[in-house]
Every structure is written in C-alpha cells, then in structure tokens.
Write a structure and sequence with these properties.
Length: 357
C-alpha cells in the first residue's frame, strides 16, 4: 500500500490562509511594496532630514547593533554655498540637550560666522538615565560601541552634506569630552583637532568599578600606558602626524578633578609622540611655555602650551580660576555655562583654524 496524504481539509485553517495568501500575486506584490517602503523609511531615518522647510536644522537617527540614538545637524547659510564645508562634531555632557549645548556654548554663532557644519550626537536615556556618554566602560574605549556610533553619524553627515574629510574636528563637554578623547585616539584618521572641556583622558580606567575614584581623584591608568593603548586602538589605519588639542578645565568644578586636564595633556603628548614615527622617543617635543592672566573682567587663568619640532603650538591647556563645571564664556541662559570665563568657543575655533578649519 502506498503512502497516503492528508486532505487539505485537515490542514489547520491559519496554515491554509498563510499558503493561499502567497498564492495570490496581488498579495505578494503588496507585501513586497510594504517591505520596500519600510526599508526606504528606515534608510531615510538613518540620514539627516530637514526638520522644517528652509530650516538650517536637520535631524537624523543612527540605528544598529549598538542601539538607537538621535542626532542633529546644523547647516549655516554660508555652508550651503560651499562645495565641501568643514565639520565640527560637538558632543554634549551629562544632563544636557545637544541643541541647547550648541546654543549655550555659542558654537552656532561661530558656525554662522565661518560656515562650518555642526554635528550634534545625542545620548539615549535608555543607555544612561542622566544622558551621560558611557566612557567608563572598557567596551566603549575601542573602535566599537558609542565611539563607533558617532563615527557612523559622521559618515552619514559627510555623505549628506559633502563634508571635506580634511576638515573634521571634535569638541566635547564633560562626558562628551571624554568621548571626544576616545574618538581621536581610536579614530585619529578622521580628526584634525580636539577640544576637551572638563573631560577625562582616553582609557582613564580599565574597568567601571573605580568610576567614582577616577572622577574625583584622577585616572587609575598612567598616561604613558593610555598613550600606547591609543596607538593600539587606532590599529593599522592611516594616521595624521599630529593630533592638536585645546583643553579647558574649571578649577572650582565639584565633579571632575582639575588633575584630569593635566592627564589629558600628558596622554596626548605620548600619543602624538607615537603618531609622528610610531616610536616613543620624544621626537614631537620642542618646548613648553606657561603664561598667567589674572582675574579682571573675566576669570583669570593659566595657559600652558606645548610646541613641536615643526614650531607648531599643538597643545593648549587653560586652567580657569573660579570656574565650576560649566562651559567657559557660555550663555548663562542655558545650563552648564558661565559667561565670566574666557571665551572657550572663540579660542577653540581660532585654534582649529590654525589646523585647517
């Protein structure tokens, strides 16, 4: 007796419906159209879209294996007339709104004046309830995680606005400055300058367990070790010969110890030493100078500069008297800004201009 087959009448009704659905060409066409439409919607979300007609503001979403995060792009009128504008990546700190950070720091004013595009990544509260960037996690101190998310945002912005790859700079405040320091160490091929305001050096800790100790008292990893790890993190990718950096830190900040500014400088000196010839031989160094400006209309500060053998002042560090955990020279209408400090944004842009902005 040969094999027997069950009648289709015995097939469960939901199975028959599923099969019959795909037997109808019209249904299949409709499904494919829906899938295509969803794919196009996803692609459109991943690239910055204009928020309002004739607006300078664009909104984008980065979605992938490292989660979903929003970002904004500000394109001044001058940039719209440039074939390949420059880009400044501005990364907010804890409890900050990226747009308010751009406004409070007065970076939008400089963008309007000079015509560079602003990219403003935004941390998702699902990944940190205070919207801090999770720089303390070892996972985020490599070419992955949150640094990779920002790199993807940069690529999306380059593609959308024809950014000049030779004119990309990064600046950040607090945890955003910590992320900026990670970016220039692990992705130095992208950046031509760094601005760090009240941040921490790259690889300040090997684990998240000593977070509080690191924030209050300084890194638990020596700068010379972190400098070498920066070289390792950047891998075999083409690297610049120099990574210029301008550093600001408030002497009265209740959160980030001022020692972090010194350690950022020290780590970047080691990293720069490797950049020029892959050797730790002090070949980057020519001289260091220190000047002091007393309190007057603005808070006083100490400025330390490092000059390389090409005669470039490629590191500037401002230690600002009486400044708390706030953007120096910012608009006090927005949180974490103090107008009584030296104008950090103007000093940053002037510094970036020396390196191609």
């Amino acid at each position: 007796m040969g094999p027997t087959f069950e009648s289709s009448h015995n097939t469960p009704k939901h199975t028959r419906s599923f099969v019959s659905f795909f037997q109808d060409p019209l249904n299949v066409s409709s499904l494919l159209l829906a899938i295509f439409s969803m794919a196009m919607l996803t692609i459109s979300l991943l690239f910055p879209q204009q928020i309002f007609a004739n607006s300078n503001w664009y909104a984008g979403v980065n979605a992938g294996v490292y989660g979903v995060r929003n970002y904004k792009v500000y394109v001044p009128m001058k940039a719209k007339n440039l074939k390949n504008p420059a880009l400044v990546v501005l990364i907010h700190g804890c409890e900050q709104n990226p747009v308010e950070f751009a406004q409070g720091s007065r970076m939008i004013e400089e963008s309007d004046r000079l015509g560079f595009v602003l990219l403003l990544p935004e941390q998702n509260k699902d990944y940190n309830p205070y919207k801090c960037w999770n720089w303390v996690l070892p996972f985020n101190q490599l070419r992955q995680g949150e640094p990779e998310v920002v790199r993807q945002m940069i690529e999306e912005t380059i593609s959308k606005f024809s950014i000049d790859r030779e004119k990309i700079f990064v600046a950040g405040m607090s945890s955003g400055a910590a992320l900026a320091n990670i970016l220039v160490n692990c992705y130095p091929e992208y950046f031509h300058g760094l601005a760090s305001h009240d941040g921490v050096m790259y690889n300040a800790t090997d684990n998240a367990l000593d977070y509080e100790e690191v924030v209050v008292n300084g890194p638990s990893v020596a700068p010379w070790i972190s400098g070498f790890r920066g070289l390792l993190c950047s891998g075999l990718n083409a690297k610049p010969k120099v990574m210029p950096a301008i550093i600001f830190h408030g002497m009265q900040g209740p959160i980030m110890s001022p020692v972090h500014a010194f350690q950022i400088e020290n780590q970047l000196k080691v990293f720069n030493d490797y950049l020029d010839n892959n050797k730790r031989d002090y070949s980057f160094f020519k001289e260091k100078n220190v000047t002091y400006a007393p309190d007057h209309a603005l808070y006083g500060h100490t400025l330390s500069t490092v000059t390389n053998k090409d005669g470039q002042v490629f590191i500037e560090r401002y230690m600002i008297n009486r400044l708390g955990h706030a953007w120096s020279g910012g608009d006090e209408k927005f949180p974490f800004n103090d107008p009584k400090g030296p104008p950090a944004t103007q000093l940053i842009i002037k510094f970036f201009q020396r390196f191609g902005l």
